Amino acid sequence: MRQVASETRDKYVVFEKEGIKYAKVPRNNYDMPVKVTKEDLTVSEPATAEKVIKKIEIYGGCIVKNYLPTEVIDTIYADAKPHLDQDGSWDGTFFPPETRRVAGMCVKSRACAENFLTHELNVAVSKAFLGREHATWTGDEIIEGYSPPQHNCTITFRIGPGAKDQALHRDDGIHHNTRKHRDSYHYGDDTALGTALALTRTTKANGATRFVPGSHLWDHWRHPSEDEVMYAELDKGDCFFMLASCFHGGSANTTEDEYRAVTILFMTLGTLRQEENIMLGTPIEYFKSLSVDALKLLGLTTSAPFLGYIDFKDPLALLKPEEHAKENKDFFSGTYKGVLVDDATA
Fold first, then answer.
1. What is the pLDDT of residues 75-120, one digit of tens each?
2. Does the domain spanning 30-273 belong to CATH 2.60.120.620?
3. pTM of this structure
4. Structural domain spans, the chain
5. Torsion of CA 46, 53, 176, 233, to 10 degrees
């Protein structure tokens, strides 16, 4: 049988020692860290799309002050709270047990859809990084097409006291992107752009996002370290823009009684969708009547890691719960402890 196509398989070597699986990965010594301050990342007021785009090109992210008014922030948080209160600890390792999540915020909060998603800066900046134009032969004509960005996910996170640091990661891993080293930003590399809206004041102490500036230009195998992070501290109503190619993670909440709440919106390429939309208008009972094999081929299961879930569950949990019991809640196909080496083949 032909092997599955992979751009990464031959770049690391898996081995087992004393019952633990490891992956040897070549050391990267040429992608250097970027030292910045919060002031460097903060867009001067009045914020414009051009200012935001310039900061993101250089650092991979930026902070916009007073992104949405207090009344909108309070409405979004109020819409999320009942769902946050019903959520439980994550059955896996990707989120700390003290973190609560609400997925699908744009269908659970009208204010989220009409104010956060449609914000003029989100629309303009997403078009700049994620809009795509293309032309091709059709018969004797050249046909042009423009694909606008689309909503990828909108999630509210609330980090409670006692939570530990989340592992640093890139969110574009869901699209199986393999990054190349860049000396400067190259348009067309990215598949997603995020905006994190502060529903409460976020600080280093209560779990503000850890962010590695400049990591959007790093090679795929460059490993981030904790001494390269900065904390995206925000006042309520501020917003943090970030390319999905940047390493980041939630932070430890070392306070006794503070809860850090943010709503994170990701936009993605308009081309990352099925050609035919058969979901809208199809009764769920029809899908429940299909075999597991048919459901998977229709796309009603997850693509590892973390792509295609519903409320952080594989769609099979809704359609075929007996099958979902066999699935890994972290949506990973495999996990190995990484070991940096000069020669992975040695």
1. 999 999 999 999 888 877 788 889 999 999 999 999 999 999 999 9
2. yes
3. 0.93
4. 30-273, 277-329
5. -40
